[in-house]
Amino acid sequence: MTFEPSITLCILVLSELAALWIIWRLWRSGDHPFFKVVLSLLALLPVLGPIIALWIGNFPPRAPRVLQDQRRYRADVHDRWRSTLDAPPRKRFYRWRELMTKHRNEDP
Known about the structure:
By secondary structure, the chain is mostly helical. It has two domains: 7-59, no CATH class; 75-108, no CATH class. It contains five helices and no strands. It has helices at residues 7-28, 33-43, 48-56, 76-86, 89-102.
């Protein structure tokens, strides 16, 4: 009895080797365990599974703490502009100009 490897068998073996590598890479990451389990099961599907798991599981790295929004429930933009908005028209212009030159390099 001779065994002749076919192209289909080679593709399946390469697909599962890629799935094992993706699973190994996924479980070493700092992602949530739910994503690890779901993407591991998805990666075990033949041929398209590793491609889809690699595509979905390639999460961007977290932003540094300085760039994260730590005050999401506070209207800090409105607080900054409150004195300008409540001022009479002429003072409003001067306060607006002061705020725009003072904070011109900040992101909106």
